[in-house]
């Protein structure tokens, strides 16, 4: 009983911190979802675009630039990285996953060049979280309010965009690129723009994380992709993916639930090194479940006929 009470109390104490973190990392999950679901373009660029945004933001803040301007420039850098991944795939006929691996590998060196070192502290610099009125800067409440406001704004803008003619064209390219091209849709433009948008959101998540934690590191994206996939699977299991609003809501819902689960596991005493193994097994199970259900279908049908 004492163990359960300690676990619950530790979990409750961590809720505000993990909620703020999950709202920031929801942008990375969104950057994973857009190519994966909207464009049928499995992409690994997020693991490189996330630290890219953080490194760019950190350097600009250290130089005295406005935190909002630093985020916007980091977002632009992530957009360029995503566009490069899509261009490599389209121009050289390289598989999407390999193109993402190549871009992610090159971004590591680029991030080191940008910062000039492996990590950079921005403690003491003004962040966008300091702009929240009536709340003390640096505390989770200000981060929750600001990240939540950004999330709602992005959700509304994307929902509007994907209901426009251009947004529908992007979804059509993901559904059937040959048919989309036959209808006069520029497949190259839609693919490059969509993957670039995903890279921009991943970089924005990195920029927000740097302002939240107070430092940038070239290795800050290590493992972020598998965490994002796990969050996406949870979000889709909760809200579904049958419509555009559900697809857009899944990254935010999934990120919140996933990081609360991680927090509960840590509070219950799970060793931190085991979290990656548990996350990988969870994603594997979620990806394998549909195929297992399909393979059971004919067998179940045969058993029914025999009876």
UniProtKB/TrEMBL annotation:
It is a multi-pass membrane protein. The keyword Phosphoprotein does not apply. The chain crosses the membrane at residues 12-36, 71-90, 97-116, 144-162, 187-208, 220-239, 248-269, 275-292. It is found in: Cell membrane. It comes from Shinella lacus. It holds the Pfam family BPD_transp_2. The keyword Membrane applies. InterPro entries: ABC_transp_permease. Signal peptide: none annotated. This is ABC transporter permease. Keywords: Cell membrane, Membrane, Transmembrane, Transmembrane helix.
């Amino acid at each position: 009983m004492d163990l359960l009470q300690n676990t619950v109390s530790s979990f409750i104490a961590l809720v505000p911190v993990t909620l703020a973190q999950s709202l920031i990392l929801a942008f990375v999950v969104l950057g994973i979802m857009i190519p994966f679901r909207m464009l049928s373009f499995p992409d690994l660029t997020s693991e490189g675009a996330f630290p890219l945004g953080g490194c760019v933001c950190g350097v600009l803040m250290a130089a005295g630039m406005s935190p909002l301007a630093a985020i916007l420039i980091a977002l632009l850098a992530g957009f360029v990285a995503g566009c490069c991944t899509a261009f490599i795939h389209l121009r050289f006929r390289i598989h999407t996953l390999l193109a993402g691996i190549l871009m992610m590998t090159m971004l590591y060196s680029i991030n080191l060049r940008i910062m000039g070192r492996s990590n950079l502290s921005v403690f003491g610099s003004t962040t966008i979280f300091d702009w929240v009125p009536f709340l003390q800067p640096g505390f989770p409440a200000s981060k929750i309010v600001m990240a939540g406001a950004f999330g709602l704004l992005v959700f509304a803008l994307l929902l509007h965009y994907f209901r426009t003619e251009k947004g529908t064209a992007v979804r059509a390219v993901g559904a059937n690129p040959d048919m989309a091209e036959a209808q006069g849709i520029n497949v190259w433009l839609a693919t490059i723009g969509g993957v670039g948008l995903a890279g921009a959101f991943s970089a924005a998540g990195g920029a927000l994380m740097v302002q939240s934690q107070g430092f940038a590191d070239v290795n800050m994206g290590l493992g972020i992709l598998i965490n994002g996939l796990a969050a996406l699977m949870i979000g889709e299991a909760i809200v579904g993916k049958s419509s555009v609003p559900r697809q857009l809501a899944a990254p935010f819902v999934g990120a919140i639930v996933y990081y609360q689960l991680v927090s509960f596991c840590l509070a219950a005493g799970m060793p931190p090194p085991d979290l990656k193994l548990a996350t990988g097994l969870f994603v594997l199970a979620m990806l394998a479940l549909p195929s297992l259900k399909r393979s059971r279908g004919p067998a179940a049908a045969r058993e029914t006929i025999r009876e």
